[in-house]
Amino acid sequence: MTQGDSILRVLLVEDNPGDVMLTRIALEQSERPFTLDVARDGEEALAYLRHEGSFSASAVPDFVILDLNLPRIDGTSVLAFIRATAALEDVPVAVLSSAPLDALRSRAASANCHIEKPADLAGFMTVGHSLWRCWERANGQ
Amino acid sequence: LLIVDDEVRQMEALCRTLEPEGYEVTGFTSPHDAVASLRERTYDIVLTDLMMPGMDGITLLRTALEMDADLVGILMTGEGTVTTAVDAMKVGALDYILKPFKLSAIRPVLTRALGVRRLRMENIRLREAVGIYELSQSIARTLDAHAILEKIAEAAFQQSYAHEVLVLVGDARRNVLGLGVSRSRGTARDPEWAVPITDDLLAWAARSSERLSQLDEGLPGGPIQAPGLADAPTRLALPMLAGGRLTGVLTFEPLPGRSIAPGQIRALSVLASAGATALEVSALVAQLRRTNEDLRQVAWAASHDLQEPLRMIALYTELLGQTYAGKGDAKSDELVSYAAEGSKRILGMLRELRTYVEAGDRAAGSDMHADSGRAVARALAHLRSAIEAGRADVHVAELPTVRMNEAHLAEVFARLIDNAIKFRRPDTPARVAIAATRAAGMWTFSILDEGMGIDPAYHTQIFELFKRLNRREEYTGHGMGLPICRRIVEAYGGSLWVESQEHQGARFCFSVPALTGTA
What ipTM was assigned to the predicted interfaces of this complex? Predict the structure, then answer.
């Protein structure tokens, strides 16, 4: 692993501020150090990943957490862009969305894992654990 | 009876003799006048002289038969030659009489002619009846408006032997009659061709339908002209009325020199109104489908899109409660818990509503083979904790394989067995019996319990959305179980009902199509 690797750079693509806050809390349940960048829609996510505009200084993320139902460009297009871009194709992607799992799997088959957003707090806190497990598995841990 | 003879005395003598016999006689000395009269009205029998100036009797008969193929023609001739007789028969004459003849000799000939005419008319009616029956059968199986138009046009073209047939159809707002479908032996018409629906046209339609229904034996010949249809073949125009509303007009241009026989006009007018009704039904069905689709979208949006903001309310109310638990005044924890409970309940209701909406589309494309014994086992596994809590004894008879998706069948069983356990008598273990009987290609499953039962007054209500008969504090659930079960079963072509009296247990039954070819 390269320099600065102990702090993971996580990109969260999520339009709902409530879910952004809950996801951050859920990720913080683990001791693992991370920084969280947030893209608020599909266009912003693509700009971030392409280092365009205000994201010219953005680095390649270590982990992408992706909502599928986004305004303008939706999550499936963002996922397709990641998988089709040489510099990004190996980045682990977790889909975290509010449709049933079957639907998430079929809409975003190339994601590393699929998690349905729970409607209760205890459930949402376990999402943090699931997301980190997803990252670990993608990195052969 | 039409008599044509260039000798006035002969013609008048015939008329005088035959009128008292009960014949309605019209006589002409000019064959051309006779032809003109044939165009104007219907005759049963034409009795004509052979040798006449201007037109011979054979030509006259040929012309008359072209106008009405079921007319009976008789030739009077002074030349008793075989060739004349053959010529007469060739054009379709029924008989010929040698002149001079005694008046008594003509009676049996006319009696026979009248008999033939009656048979021919009866035959027309039979043909009409069969044709219309077949057509209405075929139209009844059709809901596609264009296919109906094609069938009307084809049938009208076949029936009328016309040069051209147009089916004109009113647009959605009934402002304009446009060309629906046409059949022609000549060049096709401009598909954009259209005429406005005017008050004149509507009045004409009402008038002609009255006229057509009053006439039994046929119409006076000649064109039935519709106003505003100058460009259309308007030798014959028939309104297409459904429930008094003009849905279209059927127009015909006969082949040159031919007309459309009264019997045919009657058949065609029946065709026009059968077609009008079919088109009306097809339009209503299309409208119903659109309305259904709109409703489905509303239901989908309500159950799907509302869930997101609610999820936020539920999560953050809970977070609020956890973060500030014991930090506010004594009441605040209780207030927050009510808010959390309420939002959770709405989320549950929305989930059930979504299940209900989706249940209607289930049968499409699913695996249609369910081992119902296995489906019940799945349901019981799912209900393990409820079975333990209710100390339930569930007896399952031998169950068949049916035409339904197994997971969907398991869901129906799970919800019905859950109810049977939930609504047991207080402080009594639940006893449930599941069985199946077969009748008329359907398997009927019954889930019988010895629980509280349901007053027949509520047998309709329990299938309504979110309807509950008991207090929420006493029984869990959203009041959607039965509507969802019914919707799933109906999606597979079955039905679901209840047989119960209050305090005497309940029997819920549902039928599902059997697998074809199995016992």
Answer: 0.82
Among A98, A120, A124, the residue with its CB nearest the CB of B308 is: A98
pLDDT, one tens digit per residue, over B434-492 is 999 998 889 999 999 999 899 999 998 999 988 888 887 778 888 999 999 999 999 99
User: What one-letter code names the amino acid at B49?
Assistant: D
Which spans in B45-185 are helix H? 57-67, 82-90, 103-140, 145-160
Q: Which amino acid belongs to residue B131?
A: G
One-letter amino acid of B350: L
Q: Is A120 in Cβ contact with B312 (below 8 Å)?
A: no
DSSP structural state of residue B187: P
* Strand-strand pairing, B431-439 and B442-449: antiparallel
CA distance B357 to B359: 6
Which residues partner with B147 through β-bridges?
Answer: none
Give the burial class of B219: count Cβ atoms within 10 A of its Cβ; 0-12 exposed, 13-18 middle, 19 or more buried.
buried
Among B360, B344, B340, smallest CA distance to B465 is for B360
Q: For chain A, what is the radius of gyration of the CA atoms?
A: 14
CA gyration radius, chain B: 38
The minimal CB distance from A121 to the residues B307, B310, B318 is found for B318
- Write the pLDDT tens digit of every residue in B383-399: 999 999 989 999 999 99
Cα distance between residue B337 and residue B321, in whole Å: 7
Digitized pLDDT (tens) for each residue of chain A, 141 residues in all = 444 457 899 999 999 999 999 999 999 998 889 999 999 999 999 999 999 888 888 888 999 999 998 888 889 999 999 999 998 988 999 999 887 787 888 888 899 999 999 888 899 999 999 999 999 998 887
Ordered alpha helix ranges (H), B326-405: 332-359, 372-382, 384-389
Question: How far is C-alpha B141 from the geometric centre of its chain's CA atoms?
Answer: 7
Q: For residue A55, count other CB atoms closer than 10 A to its CB.
A: 17
> What DSSP state is assigned to residue A118?
P
Note whether A117 contacts B311, CB cutoff 8 Å: yes
Q: How far apart are the CA of B312 and the nearest CA of chain A, in angstroms?
A: 7
